[in-house]
């Protein structure tokens, strides 16, 4: 019962907190704290009219009193309607944490009242970045206006449920194939594939992603002052995904998506992220922008994370298909232990402090609001439900563990991890795992979860190290540093990519300070192992974990060196840690299984425990050519690090010699010739590595991801010995002209002299990436496509003056064949490499062949190749860069 705008008793929130309530609707305390104010009726009142208020009505009169939580009385912000679940989601026993109120969806009456107001479709605006339209139309037209929504264009939260439930977006619903391989075929989030099916009004009313929780005052005030497109500078100042931004990023009710043009990204991206793409420090094939002019995105990610985790029904999942979380192969299957309520509560409390600290840091430089005022305005967050967290952890182990093995016995135990050592460090590690798994989920809330958690964990990780310097020796902290580096380096966000490249040196130095790079004799006697297998197994796992941590850092150092075109930071002479042991030992489920495998491995003399420095020394001396020597995929991959380091140093040295006649004088010509001879020696060592890998890998099965990744790296390093990628990118940034190789005679000479080898290595990169299951491709696979695309494109242009890329050897000798579908030992491939017979071509997804004599077609093929696999922000950025390059050079013709 209400009396003069007041209720007879305190509201539900004040009653739970035992605080004074002025009994207004909403009360002053709830309005200040920006929480939902739920009025209560006196228990002794059994008036049926009070119960009628709990029933949801289809419409509400404009004069009815609507609870408002932290929003000004401005009527420009309207609440939309949304469907709430029939039963509340189980979020764990959050109430067990003192001081953290848990206002879940159990009391839905007032929430339904708030959501009853109709959505105003007249205020909606819908803009897409249509810069990729020309990729769908064969580049016959110039790209249209590339304006996008000036506020964070968050997709509706219901997309996450549809994605995990396997709903086919292209057909408007229905279940998809239950296999992991069929996931890609059924889930296409590209807007050009959306049919012209208008969305009913009742569906459109539930699409606003921020209709389910209050709008922060800082957002509401900004939105009320803003109208129309916003510049990048103002965009950086706003930063938060407000309700107004959500409304401006969706189509009006009843209109199909196609009316607004196709969307180039599978997930509509924030304008600030897109605007900073051409400011990346690497992958610069187009004219770049001033890095200082790039909009900052850290606050945008954090506020997007805050809004996502505040939503009580952002992760409404009902029937998560087990097939989606099923790995593509049992060979690298890792089971996930379910989260206990205690682990979830503890993780939630620590995540709350991480997020508040990060937001406070990023708001510290703003004088218009103090950190204290902001912290008072932030509410409490809710972690995604356990089924979603486990889905993200499954995605993490599929995409990370095949290449950087950290989880022993094939069982990830988050509950035990939270009990080990530093709780904050363990929480950072778990949150980074979740962020890594969510990176490939094609929904906007998943991207905010990834980028926001990455930023919050970065700040907290640096904070705990600064407060306790002894944590530099903590293995969990060093694993956090590795996981952050891999997430941020391949995030597709300039802010995180630059920070990852800047901070990797700090974490690598911590390895040395912790003594992990020194040699330690970790051999265990068989007698001690048999006497106490459990203790011996635990001790072995501790030593093996150190070895695998160092090895993973070596792999990451090599990947960043290769794809970012920088020198490695780790020196092979300083890496004296013992090499990782066999995967059979690491994946043993019990101590008895481990002891049996350990006895077998110890009795074999062909598998010595050695350091990377020792292994490379044996490789250079030819001792690994013994047929009895067999190396694991990770050991083969580690051998590529010194070869990549040597190639990079020689390439940097050659870049000091400018093109021109002066190179032919005196000692300069001799030095340049000697450097090229050293590169030929590297090519010889790479051939030795290939022979060793072929013997160790048996029949070259491509179903093991680490083996395919090793071969991709091998082919890319081979391309580095022939082509200098920074020179290729420098040429690509020029304005198209009849002579693109002016001033780059050495690059043109390399492309024409080694055309066969270049196309061979590029084609093998494409073949191997296609052979890998889409859900387990490494995070850097778009970068591999980028390098192969630019190299083959440049080689095609360098040979454009010839009537054919190959000399005429007769009609049968020039028969076309798809070079990117053949293994290296295929007869057609062997004839082509040895005698030049045949006309190589690339193949499309539908089997059609693409001529290598048309450079423009090569770029289009690579853009199409990037449509495969799970979408990530990094993949979208690479695809955008290649698409813009193809548009800029589409009219190029040879003189």
From TrEMBL:
Which stretches are tagged as biased composition: Polar residues?
A: 59-79
Species name for this entry?
A: Cladonia borealis
Name the residue ranges with Low complexity bias.
Answer: 221-232, 240-252
* Domain of life where this protein originates: Eukaryota
Q: What are the recorded GO MF terms, alphabetically?
A: DNA binding; DNA-binding transcription factor activity, RNA polymerase II-specific; zinc ion binding
Which residues are in the Zn(2)-C6 fungal-type domain? 10-37
A Gene Ontology biological process term: DNA-templated transcription
Matching SUPFAM superfamilies: Zn2/Cys6 DNA-binding domain
Query: Is-annotated flag, keyword Transcription?
Result: yes
**What is this protein identified as?**
Zn(2)-C6 fungal-type domain-containing protein
Indicate whether Transcription appears among the record's keywords. yes
PANTHER family, per database record: TRANSCRIPTION FACTOR WITH C2H2 AND ZN(2)-CYS(6) DNA BINDING DOMAIN (EUROFUNG) (PTHR47660:SF2), TRANSCRIPTION FACTOR WITH C2H2 AND ZN(2)-CYS(6) DNA BINDING DOMAIN (EUROFUNG)-RELATED-RELATED (PTHR47660)
Query: Sorted alphabetically, which keywords does the UniProt record give?
Result: Metal-binding, Nucleus, Transcription, Transcription regulation, Zinc
The segments labelled Disordered in the record are 43-79, 210-266
